[in-house]
Structure formats: structure tokens, C-alpha cells
Write a structure and sequence with these properties.
- This protein is α+β, with helices and mostly antiparallel strands and about 625 residues long.
- The chain has helices spanning about 5-10, 25-30, 35-55, 55-75, 75-95, 95-115, 120-135, 140-155, 160-175, 180-195, 200-215, 220-235, 240-255, 260-275, 280-295, 300-315, 320-335, 340-455, 455-480, 490-505, 525-545, 580-585, 590-600, and strands spanning about 490, 515-520, 525, 555-565, 565-575, 605-610, 615-620.
- The chain contains 23 helices and seven strands.
- The strands form two sheets. Strands 2-4-5-7-6 form a five-stranded mixed β-sheet.
- α8 (about 140-155) packs antiparallel against α9 (about 160-175) and α20 (about 490-505) runs parallel beside α21 (about 525-545).
- It is rod-shaped.
């Protein structure tokens, strides 16, 4: 598939100017009179295009980049697309196809965003298809070549249609599909003949001729090459004219017309040497040497093969260099110059060894590079996986944090509501205890007044005892509304105050009265404290009333402790002691009935003993 190289070269067509072509300096001069930014962008784009035609590649990309900066600043999508297309063209012309593809894709994305397919849209597709063709990806190359064809037909761009045919020709040639390759080459020739495109016509004619030559159909190839040379001669296109004449010479060599071959090779020599392309010059010198060798004029062939060898050695093309040296060795041997032929044969073998070593080194380097690349890809893949896992983890953490925050906010709001309700309830309970205390105080005052009016001593005493019981309850409610805690009372303080109140009420002097209080727990639930306090009230009242007759050193002991999950209350005096039979009798005083009722309410047990006085021991379950 020798034709594939020229086919690829033909694809690298320079993209046109937007307006009629002038020198790049003319467009730069026009910048001084530009009416607006769009005019400046257009002049820079045209200067970039014309600079490339003039062979000023660095100037071309310089102007294209300025145009791109202006376009982005002005938010001009079309200007940006045109600028990017010229940057892609620059990289295509210096054979950096990967960069060319990158900018061509960027250019077409800008065209798509602008809503129009600009003048360079199809050229970008040609560049992208050329990249995939060079990479050996025929499927992708075909995809973009057909896209180029569709866009070119839509835009009625005959030059781009021709380029599409040439690209398709090259792709099918790479796929060894000669039938389709020739079909698209013929279409390219047909459309260029129709529109009279001189520059493109010379290229597509030579391409089609090369395909016929590969099929050894030299009779078909010759007219195409003569036509290509004639068209190129009119346009003074040295490269295409020289290539066409050189290929005509090759056809004559293959047909055995050696004089004609030498004639056309001589005609091509001036043009080939002028364009100074090493590959074209090697091709020319090889054809010269082959034509003379076919005529057994080996001494005439040797100078031309020497010229090829010199170029190949300079350009370090080892394999072609080895072949050329070996060919020269054959010519020397056939010319009877055996010693020189032998030396050249040894040299060719030495070159072959170098090639083998180089190939081995390149293979090792390639394997190493591939291994390193795979390792790098694995590291990148692992890093990406780690990043994905990290991102997923962070997302989960953020979601959880969000849920926790939302729950915290809801809980805080709920707690605030509960606290407000609790504060309100506490206030209401304090108010309730205050009112209950006030009402009990009123009742106590009424009973106190009433007791003074009652003449019957027994009845008066009963009223006073009732008053004391009410005051005992009032004292509890007073403590509840004066404290922040409305569900518990300080039982130690309460019993101490209650004893002091009763001692004072019954006229016992502190100097003569010995009172010992041992209260272990300070706080007690109000539901237990009220009945317990009334029990203490009854027992202490009973002691002050009956226990200390004829006792000059009265003693009162009250202990309250917790033991084995129970509350143990002990009330003891040093009086004459109670009659246990009377206490256990079902019939009794109102005070005794109250005590028994409250003991039952507390699910407790009351034990009565006489030991140097009365001892009342109450055991009740502890309520939290």
C-alpha cells in the first residue's frame, strides 16, 4: 500500500481565507482601520490562514491565538471557532495530530454553540478523521469522514466534498478494500474536474493513478498522471508536477520503456530537487538507478543509488539504508567489481545487525513503556476508585451530618417546647401550692379562732389538733411553692420545722427539751412526704401530749434512713410508754386511725415497742 502515504499527504489541505486571499501583511495592515472587534478578529484569522499558505507556520498560530483571545473577550463564538480551526491546522501541518484533533473538536463545539456550521467546520472534521486514520482506528475515521461529507453537502462546499472522498479513499485503502478505495478516488477526480479545482485535481489524479499502479494497471494510470502534470504545470505547482512526472517515469520503467522512463525522470528532477523533500528525492534516485539497472547499465545506476544512500544515511532511515546498500552491492557484483561488492555486502549485514539490535532495544523499550503505562493506568484507576469511594464516603457523612443536624434542630425545638410547657406547668403547680397553702392557712386560722370560742375542753382540744394537722400540710405546700423543685421536698428541714412548731405549741422549752434528729435523705417525693409528715405530726403530737408527764428531762428522737430499698422512720421518746394493747385495738382515737390509714396508703408496716419510753418504727418501700 505505497499509495497510502501520498493519500495522507493529500488530506493535509490548507484551509481557505474567509475573504479573497491577499498577503498576510495586508490583513495585519487592515487592523489599523478595523471598525470594531469583529473586524479585528476577521483580519487576524485571515492573516493566520494566509501565513500558513506562505509557509509562515509560527506567524499563523501567533495570529490565530490573538484572534482567539479577542473572540473570548468579546464572547464571539464564531470568531473563537474560526481561531481554533487555524490552531488545529497549524498542529496538523507540523504533524502533531493529537493536538490538531483537540483544537478541531473545540472549534466544532464552538460552532455548535453558535448555532451555525462555519466555513471551517468540515475542515475540522477532516482533521479529526485524519487523526483516527493515522492512529489505525478505521471505525472512528469513517465516522468523522461521513460527518464531513454530510456537512460539506449541506454547506455545498465542493472542495470539502472532494476532501471527504479522498479521506474515504485513504481509509478503505488502509482496510485493504481496494474496490471502495478506487471508487472514492474516482469520485474525487470527477468532482474536481467538474469544478475545475486545479490544486486538488492534481492530487486526486495522482492518488487514483497510484491505486491503478498498485494493481499494475499502468495503461490506466498513465493518462491520469499526464493530466495531473498538465494541470500542475498551469498552476506552477512544483510538487505535484514533479510527482506526476516521476510517477510517469516509474510506469515506463515497469513497462520496459526505459528511454521514456529516463526522459520523464529527468523532467521531474528539477521540481523534485526544488521542493527539497528527502523521501521524494530518494524515490527519484531509486527510480533512476532501477531504470539503468534494468538496461544492465550498472555503472550508470551506481551514482544514483549512492545519492539515495547518502540521504538515507543522513536521515538515519536504517532499513531503507540497508536495502539501498545491499542493492548497490548487487550492482557492483553485476558490474564485475566484486571486492567492492563484498565490502558493501558486509556493510549491509552490519547494518542489519544494528537494525536487529535497535529493534530489540525498541521492543524492550516499548514493552517497558507499555508496562509503565499499564502501571500508571492502574494507579490512576485505583486513585479514581479511591476518589469515588472518598466522595461517596463524604456524601454519606454529609447526609448523616444533615440528618443529625435536622434531628438536632427538631429535638431542640421539641425540647424548647417541652421546657416551655414544663416551665408553665411548674409555675401553675407553684401557684396551686401557694393557693392550697393560703387556703389551709385560712382554715387553720378559722379553727384557731373557733377553738377559743368552744367551752368544751375536749372539743376545743380536738379542734386544735385538727388545726395542727392542717398546719403540717400547709408547711409542706409552703415549701413546694418557695422552691424550684415542685415534686420533692427537703424532708430534713421539714421535720425539723414541724418538731419546732409542735414543741412551741405544747410549751416545751428548748433548754429543758432534748431533741435528736437524724435524717439521712434530704429529698423525698411529695407523694410519700405528705402522708409521712402527717404520721410524724401525729406521733410527735402524741409524745408532747402524753409522754412527758412528771418528766423533768424529756427527750425526743427522730431518725429517717434508707435500708434494703425501704425507708425506716423511728420516732422515740423517754416517757412512760404507750399501752400496746390499746394501740393494737381496732377502736381508738382519731389520731391513731389517721396513722393506720397513712401507713396503709404508703404500703408500710408500723412496729410499736416500749423501751424506756415509746418507740414507733415505720418501714415503707422507697419511691423514686
Amino acid at each position: 500500500m505505497r499509495s497510502i502515504l501520498i493519500l495522507l499527504i493529500s488530506i493535509l489541505m490548507p484551509i481557505p481565507c474567509i475573504s479573497q486571499a491577499q498577503t498576510s501583511d495586508v490583513y495585519i495592515a487592515k487592523l489599523a482601520t478595523s471598525k470594531n472587534t469583529q473586524d479585528s478578529i476577521g483580519n487576524y484569522v485571515n492573516a493566520a490562514s494566509q501565513s500558513m499558505r506562505e509557509g509562515k507556520a509560527e506567524s499563523s498560530i501567533h495570529y490565530a491565538r490573538i484572534a482567539l483571545q479577542l473572540s473570548r473577550k468579546a464572547k464571539d463564538l464564531t470568531g473563537a471557532a474560526n481561531s481554533l480551526a487555524h490552531i488545529a491546522n497549524y498542529f496538523h501541518n507540523i504533524n502533531k495530530l493529537d493536538s490538531a484533533k483537540h483544537y478541531a473538536l473545540a472549534s466544532n463545539r464552538a460552532y455548535d454553540k453558535s448555532g451555525e456550521k462555519g466555513i471551517y467546520y468540515t475542515y475540522n472534521l477532516n482533521t479529526i478523521a485524519g487523526y483516527y486514520l493515522g492512529a489505525g482506528d478505521a471505525k472512528s475515521a469513517l465516522k468523522y469522514a461521513h460527518q464531513q461529507m454530510d456537512a460539506a453537502v449541506e454547506l455545498k462546499d465542493t472542495i470539502s466534498i472532494s476532501n471527504s472522498y479522498t479521506m474515504l479513499c485513504a481509509i478503505y485503502e488502509m482496510l485493504d478494500d481496494r474496490k471502495n478505495s478506487i471508487r472514492y478516488a474516482e469520485k474525487a477526480v470527477e468532482i474536481n474536474r467538474m469544478v475545475g479545482s486545479g490544486f486538488n485535481l492534481t492530487v486526486v489524479l495522482s492518488n487514483l493513478a497510484l491505486l491503478y499502479m498498485d494493481e499494475q494497471q499502468y495503461a490506466k494510470a498513465m493518462p491520469l498522471l499526464h493530466e495531473s502534470a498538465a494541470v500542475a504545470n498551469k498552476g506552477s505547482v512544483l510538487k505535484d508536477r514533479g510527482t506526476a512526472n516521476m510517477l510517469i517515469g516509474e510506469c515506463h520503467t515497469q513497462l520496459g520503456n526505459y528511454d521514456s522512463a529516463i526522459y520523464y525522470l529527468e523532467h521531474s528532477k528539477q521540481d523534485i530537487l526544488a521542493i527539497n523533500n528527502p523521501e521524494s528525492k530518494v524515490k527519484l534516485w531509486t527510480l533512476f538507478s532501477s531504470s539503468y539497472a534494468q538496461q544492465k547499465k550498472y555503472n550508470a545506476a551506481i551514482p544514483y543509488i549512492d545519492s539515495s544512500i547518502a540521504i538515507l544515511k543522513e536521515t538515519k532511515q536504517l532499513k531503507p539504508y540497508e536495502i539501498a546498500v545491499k542493492l548497490k552491492s548487487e550492482y557492483m557484483a553485476k558490474a564485475g567489481r566484486y571486492e567492492e561488492a563484498y565490502k558493501l555486502l558486509k556493510e549491509s549485514r552490519s547494518i542489519n545487525d544494528s537494525i536487529t539490535n535497535t529493534e530489540v532495544q525498541e521492543a524492550v523499550a516499548e514493552l517497558k513503556e507499555k508496562y509503565e503505562s499499564e502501571k500508571k493506568d492502574q494507579r490512576i484507576a485505583q486513585q479514581k476508585q479511591n476518589n469515588r469511594l472518598l466522595a461517596a464516603g463524604l456524601l454519606v457523612v454529609v447526609l448523616l451530618a444533615g440528618l443529625i443536624l435536622a434531628q438536632y434542630i427538631r429535638q431542640r425545638a421539641a425540647n424548647a417546647t417541652i421546657q416551655r410547657q414544663s416551665d408553665k406547668l411548674t409555675l401553675l403547680m407553684k401557684e396551686l401550692h401557694h393557693r392550697v397553702k393560703n387556703n389551709l392557712q385560712i382554715i387553720s386560722s378559722l379553727l384557731s379562732l373557733q377553738s377559743f370560742r368552744i367551752k368544751d375542753e375536749k372539743a376545743s382540744r380536738a379542734v386544735r389538733e385538727g388545726q395542727q394537722r392542717i398546719e403540717a400540710m400547709s408547711l409542706i405546700h409552703q415549701r413546694l411553692y418557695t422552691r424550684d423543685n415542685i415534686t420533692e421536698i427537703n424532708i430534713r428541714e421539714y421535720i425539723s420545722d414541724l418538731v419546732d412548731s409542735l414543741q412551741s405549741a405544747y410549751g416545751f422549752d428548748n433548754d429543758k427539751m432534748s431533741t435528736r434528729l437524724d435524717i439521712a435523705d434530704e429529698l423525698m417525693n411529695v407523694d410519700q412526704a405528705i402522708p409521712l409528715s402527717l404520721i410524724v405530726n401525729e406521733l410527735v403530737t402524741n409524745a408532747f401530749k402524753y409522754a412527758y408527764e412528771d418528766n423533768n428531762a424529756p427527750e425526743l428522737t427522730i431518725t429517717l434512713k434508707r435500708k434494703d430499698g425501704n425507708i425506716i422512720l423511728l420516732v422515740a421518746d423517754n416517757g412512760k410508754g404507750v399501752n400496746i394493747e390499746e394501740w393494737t385495738d381496732k377502736e381508738g382515737s382519731f389520731g391513731k386511725e389517721l396513722i393506720q390509714t397513712f401507713v396503709k396508703q404508703l404500703n408500710g408496716y408500723l412496729d410499736i415497742a416500749v423501751n424506756k419510753g415509746s418507740q414507733f418504727t415505720l418501714s415503707i418501700p422507697y419511691a423514686t
